[in-house]
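Final report, Chapter 2: Outcomes

The project's central promise was a pipeline that accepts a single protein chain and returns its three-dimensional structure in a standardized token representation, suitable for archiving and comparison. That pipeline is now operational. To close this chapter, we reproduce one record exactly as it appears in the project archive, with the input sequence first and the structure output second.
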Amino acid sequence: MHKVAALIVGSLVLVSFLSGCISEKEEVPTIVIGSKPFNEQYILAHMIALLLENNGYKAEVKEGLGGTLVNYEALKKGQIHIYVEYTGTAYNNILKLDPPENWDPDYVYEKSKEEMLSRDGILTVVKLGFRDDYAIAVKKEFAEKNGLQKLSDLAPYAPKMVLGTDPEFATRPDGLPRIKEVYGFTFGDVKQMEPTLMYEAIKNDQVDAISAYTTDARVDLFDLKILEDDKGALPPYDAVILVKKDFADKYPEIIEILKKLEGLIDTNTMRLLNYKYDVEKKDAREIAKEFLVEKGLISG
């Protein structure tokens, strides 16, 4: 009789313990991941969601939630829990810090990380490994013919070249004016146009160079060469994962899961993933899944 009673009591204790564990797990909310309205943001948001789901969490992606400030404010207010930002954007657009003499990537990363935490309680928990920078691109054929690898190499040719650029890059202080200031050359002519038209323009020899993004799939599609910003004239845009500090403190195990993405994606890889989305028209979640399976982070 005593053995039966002990067994019943023991069973009740075990059930109570397991119920407690289950209820604790259930207390973790559905993790909401925000994203800006463009290709790589969709892919990265789904990558984060899949990684969390593979570890037993519920996740929801808010595709194209809004621009920088919409996502950042949503994060501050707890309307989303995670999103991917870029250090140069945080430095310039969110924090509105004074531009340094030289856009050293490590300085911009550390300064933006420090200021977001002190001002808003926002933690930078993962540096993904790639940068989505503004850049100057030329045809590979032209670059090979003239030995062009970096922006400094462009100086003798720029006065005779036509640059196609979006209006923002043409006028913003940290864009084309900054290149002129740091490198000391000016393009012979500058044609402002929509980004979608720039690639057709260089393909058809209507312009000789264009402003581009380093992770843009069209760089490969149109057989272009990104010239290295060897003097650090333009801001660096390292991709980082942001969360609120109180969220990280409450769910440290989630932060450990996110850290599996640390340094995992270089610029060429991100460009390839964007190519699959923009050119091959694959679904963002499927692209993210293929990548994570290939890296052994989730099961197929």
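Archive annotation: The longest helix spans residues 2-26.
This record, like all others produced under the grant, will remain available to the consortium after the project formally closes.
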